[in-house]
Amino acid sequence: MGRVALVTGGVRGIGAAIAKALTAEGYTVAATYAGNDAAAKEFREETGIAVYKWNVRDYEDSKTGIEQVESELGPIDVVVANAGITKDAPFHKMTPEQWNQVVDTNLTGVFNTIHPCWPGMRERGFGRVIVISSINGQKGQFGQVNYAATKAGDLGIIRSLAQEGAAKGITANAICPGYIGTDMVMAIDEKIREKIVAGIPAGRLGTPEEIARCVCFLASDESGFINGSTISANGAQFFS
Ligand code: NDP
What we know:
Layout: E1 4-7, H1 13-24, E2 28-33, H2 37-47, E3 50-53, H3 59-73, E4 78-81, H4 96-114, H5 118-124, E5 127-132, H6 135-139, H7 145-165, E6 170-177, H8 183-186, H9 190-198, H10 208-219, E7 230-233
Parallel strand pairs: 1-2, 1-4, 2-3, 4-5, 5-6, 6-7
Bound molecules: NADPH dihydro-nicotinamide-adenine-dinucleotide phosphate (NDP).
The site of NADPH dihydro-nicotinamide-adenine-dinucleotide phosphate has 31 residues, from α1, β2, α4 and α8.
């Protein structure tokens, strides 16, 4: 097939499952990470997938990293903006630092990831932009004013990009996962996690592979008329 895919935050959790699933479908994949060298090394050795390190919060770092990926693997056809963080606190205790870190990573980081890929996609007349948003961007969440704002903002990004890219063969879509059993969710206090699972009609957390399947669907050449959409994958917890 020969298509190249970039997955930010692609060495752990949902991103790692996405990188592996795209590789299995025949894409040449670049998986990025921020600082967890041990996880990146293990992922690289286990999968053979190319790994790159840069901070999505920094535009110049992202641009330089993307140029390196394109010179080594070829032009990026599919960009999956997956890297994200939480810094939870009830609003009255939320610090400007917690707000800024989450906005810089989950919202500005998405701009920094897509923007350098965009001109090449326009020139070549093909592109797939996929952003990993969240159920909590759709419905809001106690303790996540920062996170929910960024994930809702990500939906605004793809809906606008869809309109700008449609005539150039580019689609932009989002996936809103519910609760998935990754480090991010396993870091939640066990008692709170049990309550969360009790509120999911499916009666369980989702798996990273179930989100990766949505990405493969949206990335395919045959999904060209799906543009500006959101796939909710949340075990029937919430319908948008
Ligand atoms: P993890 O915490 O397991 O992994 C996050 C990945 O993002 C890591 O590879 C991490 O790099 C990378 N990352 C974090 N900050 C940066 C940064 N500044 N620059 C570059 N890379 C960075 O997260 P999940 O797999 O759980 O989540 C992936 C995405 O899915 C996130 O956007 C999250 O908000 C979203 N999501 C997750 C849900 C869940 O239940 N898990 C539910 C809904 C949405 P490193 O390995 O170096 O730390």
